[in-house]
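go over this:
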Amino acid sequence: MGYYDVDGGVVTELREKFAQEFGSASWREYLYVRAPGRTEIAGNHTDHEGGSVIAAAVDRYIVGIFSPNEKDVIRLMSEGYDLIELPLGDFAPRADEHNTSVSLIRGLAALFAERGFAPKGFDAYIKSTVPKGSGLSSSAAFELELAQGMNVLWAKGVVAPDELAIMSQRAEREWFGKPCGLMDQAASALGSIEHMSFAVPGAIDAECIDFDFAKAGYRICLVAVGSDHAALTSEYAAVPGEMQAVAKELGKDLLGELDERDVIAALPQLRAKLGDRPVLRALHYYREERLVAERADALKAGDMPRFLELTRQSGASSAMYLQNVSVHGAEGQPSMVALALAEELAGEQAAVRIHGGGFGGTIQAFLPEAQVDVFVAGMEAALGKDSCMVCSVDHDGARSWRL
């Protein structure tokens, strides 16, 4: 676990900061919780349509100390932010809390109560090395950090990781107000590299892929482009909204319920009714679904050149058809500039693509080991120090340890 080993300095640091914020007492019991960020390896905006993805948890974490407080309130201090205090009792969604952390706490508490577990007061001090708004899904890591802590404190740890992911997605959709898919939460909850299908609503069908990029001579590098996508919820929401508008025009809720041939046959009416962008985004969905399956096969076969070629095709589809690289009408295009530079620096033996939700967040590069230093130096010269993160796969997922 490196720096985040439960015997390491991070726990001592968190305990000290917890005591400074909430005090210490002999009766307190402490829980250390760690939840990873995630990288989307394949499946750009397919999960919310009942499609498939390949995703992996990565070694960037939200970590925290949790302890019951014998009060009727949840108190959360996230390093760098103001203290959140949520009295127990009223857990109904509130429109004025959309896009806030307190909405996720309220939502998860409500969902544990819905399952018959009684919420009880606790204090928590957390810190993050998952850059906010960078495309590594700091929101999902935050949700799983809370969900895992609540799971142990309230439910004695009986709620399975996939169920914690589903609860976290519900909290983000119904309380936070973002129409997200389930990939981010599932990757953070499960860990490792997972080939996942979301064909059954509210369920995760996951297969672990036994592949090691490092052993294949490659590293995953994630590049923060310098533009926070946290304020672009409406742009993100437009992607599933437009895809689902196509599906509804043909009598279904999600594109995954339709055959691509039906969409193509209806193109004239769809373009006339909805415009071109929803149609392009729908066509991207079907292309990306095929590319997910083919990349899963390539990884299982250990065929890195094939995986890289398919990844380049995916990146082109995301940029041209899904159109989640640049914000419509915006003068600045930081992600497109970063993407162009990354392709120039990465070389022919690498693959580069927009990552995750897109827009302001992160680009992803699969780089030969020998190319990493040159790539990082070039990208950081243009985008700033520490804009590149060379990541490894986390195999644990969200976990907790009693201290």
